[in-house]
Design a protein that fits this description.
CATH class of the largest domain: Alpha Beta
Number of strands: 12
Radius of gyration: 78 Å
Bound molecules: calcium ion
CATH topology of the largest domain: Gamma Fibrinogen, Chain A, domain 1
Distance between the termini: 168 Å
Mean pLDDT: 84
Shape: rod-shaped
Largest sheet: 10 strands, antiparallel
């Protein structure tokens, strides 16, 4: 700004030219006297002053014009310089700005792209969120329905449980009452049973008395026939009023001696006269003809009543035969023959049967007609061999047949694969030895 200072120095003094004109005088005179003198001189020269003033004005004007021109030039140059500098700066700034703008634009573009991508992914996420929201809502609905259902079920179960508890309690009380009643009944039954036993005993005693009476009467020939008719067999004793199974005495027609027999008053209506019983192997059934003819064993247990008695009994009237069987597994079966008759000793106690029925096989294990009785000492079978010796006991062997209830008694766990045991083919096969058997007769049609 040196030019500025230069320009200013001159402009401040306004009348610099006047000062320059006085400078020459200042060199000769004292400054403190010069100024009032000059003014006074000027005031004393009124005629010269206008011309001088014009001159000064002319000189000053041209000088001013030059100074002004110079100043304008200087200022213009300075301004130009400044302008150029500014232009340069502006250009640089503009370039920088352009660069920055380009960068900003790039950046903006990138950011826009990112924004777009973000927006897209946000949209996608929003959609997913919406879908998940729907799904969640649906699941909540379902969950709620399930909860309701579970609650309903729980309620129902609780009600059922309560009902069951009530029922259980009721049953328990009922059981308690029934147990009490049962105990009372048992006591009553025991009392009744002892009464019944007493009654049975009395009945038997009465029967014995009657039989004694009958025997007394029988001593008179005229009364013999009547007495025999009364107690011919167990069916007649039952008809007389006895309904308890046990040993009774009968008088069979054509037999001189009375015979004790075991009567079954219960099975299938009762009135049965037992002719055979096996139950524990306590009696030996390996006997001869004579023994089988007369009978043997214990009437209350195992026994064979005797072929002769049976022949006499079944010759007087039509009789039925019932065979009862029991195996080692606790199964029971029976075979019943509507008509049963045994021939005389002269006819070798030939068997005659008809009208088979029962549960011990669909057909009879005894040959119905024409089979004679055989024992180890009387071979009357239809075999060239001796069935009674091979198979043991006395029986109506054919050749050698499908049954033998008088075979050897085999105890438990030894009953299998025994050909000489107690057999009934159509019940348990050809080699199974049975646990218990009974054969009994009663008049046909009862
Ligand atoms: Ca033979």
């Amino acid at each position: 700004m040196a030019s500025g200072w230069h320009f200013e120095g001159r402009s401040v003094v306004g009348g610099g030219a006047v000062q320059s004109a006085h400078d020459s005088r200042r060199t000769n005179r004292s400054p403190c006297t010069w100024a009032p003198d000059a003014v006074g001189a000027l005031n004393t020269l009124p005629t010269v002053s206008p011309q001088l003033e014009r001159y000064i004005q002319m000189n000053l004007r041209s000088e001013l014009a030059q100074v002004q021109q110079h100043m304008v030039q200087n200022q213009t140059a300075t301004m130009l310089e400044l302008g150029t500098s500014l232009l340069n700066q502006t250009t640089a700034q503009t370039r920088k700005l352009t660069d920055v703008e380009a960068q900003v634009l790039n950046q903006t573009s990138r950011m826009e792209i990112q924004l777009l991508e973000t927006s897209l992914s946000t949209n996608k996420l929003e959609k997913q969120l919406l879908l998940q929201g729907h799904e969640l809502h649906r699941l909540q609905g379902r969950n709620s329905a399930l909860e309701t259902r579970v609650q309903a079920l729980e309620t129902q179960q609780q009600a059922e449980l309560a009902s069951l508890r009530g029922e259980k309690e009721r049953l328990r009380r009922l059981l308690g009452r029934q147990s009490g009643a049962l105990a009372g009944l048992e006591r009553s039954l025991r009392a009744a049973s002892s009464n019944s036993s007493l009654l049975q005993r009395q009945q038997r005693e009465l029967l014995e008395s009657v039989q004694r009476l009958v025997r007394v009467v029988a001593q008179e020939p005229a009364s013999v026939r009547a007495a025999e008719q009364v107690f011919q067999d167990c069916a007649e004793i039952q008809r007389f009023g006895a309904n308890v199974s046990g040993i009774y005495t009968i008088h069979v027609a054509n037999m001189t001696e009375p015979r004790k027999v075991f009567c079954d008053m219960e099975a299938n209506g009762g009135g049965w006269t037992l002719i055979q019983r096996r139950e524990n192997g306590s009696v030996n059934f390996q006997r001869n003809w004579r023994d089988y003819k007369q009978g043997f064993g214990d009437l209350a247990g195992e026994h064979w009543l005797g072929n002769e008695v049976v022949h006499q009994l079944t010759s007087r009237a039509a009789y039925s035969l019932r065979v009862e069987l029991q195996d080692w597994e606790g199964n029971e079966a029976y075979a019943q023959y509507e008509h049963f008759q045994l021939g005389s000793e002269g006819q070798l106690y030939r068997l005659s049967l008809s009208g088979y029925s029962g549960s011990a096989g669909r057909q009879s294990s005894l040959v119905l007609q024409g089979t004679n009785f055989s024992t180890r000492d009387a071979d009357n079978d239809n075999c060239l061999c001796k069935c009674a010796q091979m198979l043991s006991g006395g029986w109506w062997f054919d050749a050698c047949g499908l049954s033998n209830l008088n075979g050897i008694y085999y105890p438990a766990r030894h009953h299998a694969r025994k050909l000489n045991g107690i057999r009934w083919h159509y019940f348990q096969g050809p080699s199974y030895s049975l646990r218990a058997t009974r054969m009994m007769v009663r008049p046909m049609g009862i």
